[in-house]
Amino acid sequence: KQRKARFYPAFHLAPPTGWMNDPNGLAYCDGRYHVFYQHHPYDEHWGPMHWGHMTSHDLVHWQHQPIALVPGDAFDRDGCFSGCAVNDNGVLTLIYTGHVWLQGVGNDGAIRQVQCIATSEDGLHFTKHGVIVTPPDGIMHFRDPKVWKQNGRWFMVVGARDANDRGQVLLYSGTSLFQWRLEGVLAKADRWLGYMWECPDFFPLGDKYLLMFSPQGMTPEGYRYRNRFQSGYILGRWQPDHPFTLEQHFQELDSGHDFYAPQSFVTADGRRLLFGWMDMWESERPTQADGWAGCLTLPRELSLDAQGRVRMMPARELQALRREAHTLPAFSLKNQRRRLGISALQAEIHMTWDIQKSQAERFGIEIAVSDDRRYVTRFYVDTQSRRLVLDRSQSGLGVGGYRSVTLPDGDTLDLRIFIDRSSVEVFVNQGETCLTSRIYPPTEGRGIALYAENGEAYCQTFTHWQMASIYPEP
Ligand code: FRU
Q1: Which of 357, 363, 350 is nearest to 389 (CA)?
Q2: pLDDT of residue 225 exceeding 50
């Protein structure tokens, strides 16, 4: 099938054709970054999972590579599910979940999931070596291994669903990548938080340890639109051979509609970055009519600030994609809408508002607004409720609803907004909060406007850049 361009991203990772879900095997090895991903190359719907593969020298420009893992062996007959990559003395090694349906198909069928290993000489072609870890008694859902090395020892976290249908994360240690021992349960739900914790990742951030995972099976009770519960983390302290002591309960990592299954990795210069799947299982996917589905978020750098909050900011490398800039001097708007002569098809916007002085009931930005205003995505401050709102109720095919967060304290509101054909990512106040959502408005007439309703609002700085593509020129 010929892929259509209308929603296909210019600066986000997406499959060349077919289906994509979780980012897998993020690693830096031999001077290259690797991103693998859950992939069904023959269809724009989920199916027997392959591992797609992309590489980059600079985290900005990416190249598609041949498919790295194909299911079909006895241990991964029905899918090479999510997992990770490690650089084992220069050998790029993949650790992933082999998935087999025993009876029935779908979440209710019996399954067998085991952790498997594959290695590569050239970083492109992989040889499978079979099963390295089988599930403990009573555990059937057992997947998404994440491996790291610490003090000369290997460690692995695996997501699981226990016999009482509670999510948990199991910890293993290894004397080699082939010899593993179950250390125990690293963390377990102490209240209802999904029946299965998918895609766990466990790593140090500042002086803490962060356990990131994606709870599956949350009921979006009380919400008009689904996808209420997304990936998040719990924070605590840990060292090998000690329990993980919890210091902060589950927090969502991103407050938009479409963010799931993130995985982290360490850059060549030691920063902790992540990619997430910029979609959700329950989301509508109008791009399936175009021969593809699913893409990843921008690479985001994680940090822990002085208040102990986790921050997430676009990787600084992405500044290399900025092209023509359009800057406005400081201005105010009073009961007014100011349409700018620039496009929101493929753009980055950096703007600051004086929220101390701005008294308007609502003020913000309209993104991807069509000339007839039938389509518009809004990001605004609601001063009455003191909320920051991402409104995609008129954002195009198949989507709807609002997402909002508490308006942060402070005199200024700093926003960095990335728009890439079918996505919006908003980073608030240096990554204190992020909101990520997919949108599917028409490609034509994608304007940008700033507005203030019932009062005055003060925009201090505004810069807009056209963004270049991350893919090689055809
Ligand atoms: C998360 C997930 C993983 C699994 C993969 C299958 O989105 O359900 O738990 O390994 O997707 O594609």
Answers
A1: 363
A2: no
Long-range contacts of 281-288 (CB under 8 A, 24+ apart): 282/226, 282/227, 283/227, 283/257, 283/258, 283/399, 283/438, 284/397, 284/398, 284/399, 285/44, 285/398, 286/7, 286/396, 286/397, 286/398, 286/440, 287/7, 287/8, 287/44, 287/422, 287/440, 288/44, 288/45
pLDDT digits (tens, 9 = 90+) for 107-158: 557 899 999 999 999 999 999 999 999 999 989 899 999 999 999 999 999 9
Q: Output the six-digit token pair for 98.
A: 């082999």
CATH superfamily of domain region 18-317: Glycosyl hydrolase domain; family 43 (2.115.10.20)
- Rounded-to-integer distance, Cα 207 and Cα 300, Å: 20
Domain parsing of the chain, residue ranges: 18-317, 320-467
Question: Are 18-317 and 320-467 the same fold in CATH?
Answer: no
Tell whether the model's pLDDT for residue 387 goes beyond 80. yes
Active site residues: 22
Report phi then psi at 75, rounded to 5: -85, -15
115 C-beta closer than 6 A to ligand 1: no
Q: Which amino acid is at 77?
A: R
Q: 320-467, what's its fold?
A: Jelly Rolls (2.60.120)
Q: Please choose from 94, 143, 213 the residue to mutate so as to test ligand 1's pocket, defined by most ligand atoms within 8 A of CB.
A: 143
pLDDT of amino acid 246: 95
Q: Say how far apart CA 171 and CA 160 lie, in whole Å.
A: 11
Amino acid residing at 432: E
DSSP tag of 214: E
75 neighbors 100 (Cβ within 8 angstroms) = yes
Is 143's C-beta closer than 6 angstroms to any atom of ligand 1? yes
- The better pLDDT of the pair 231, 146 is held by 146
Ligand 1 site, residue 81, Cβ cutoff 6 A: yes
pTM listed for this prediction: 0.96
C-alpha of 231 from chain center? 8
CA of 261 to the centre of ligand 1 (A): 8
DSSP state at residue 273: E
User: What is residue 226's predicted lDDT score, i.e. its pLDDT?
Assistant: 47
Least Cα distance to 200 among 177, 171, 179 occurs for 171
Question: Model ipTM?
Answer: 0.99
Please tell me the distance from the alpha carbon of residue 29 to that of residue 55, in angstroms, as a whole number: 10
383 C-beta closer than 6 A to ligand 1: no
Q: Ligand 1 pocket, 231 CB below 6 A? A: no
Atom of ligand 1 nearest to the CA of 83: 10
Distance from C-alpha of 406 to C-alpha of 423, rounded to nearest angstrom: 22
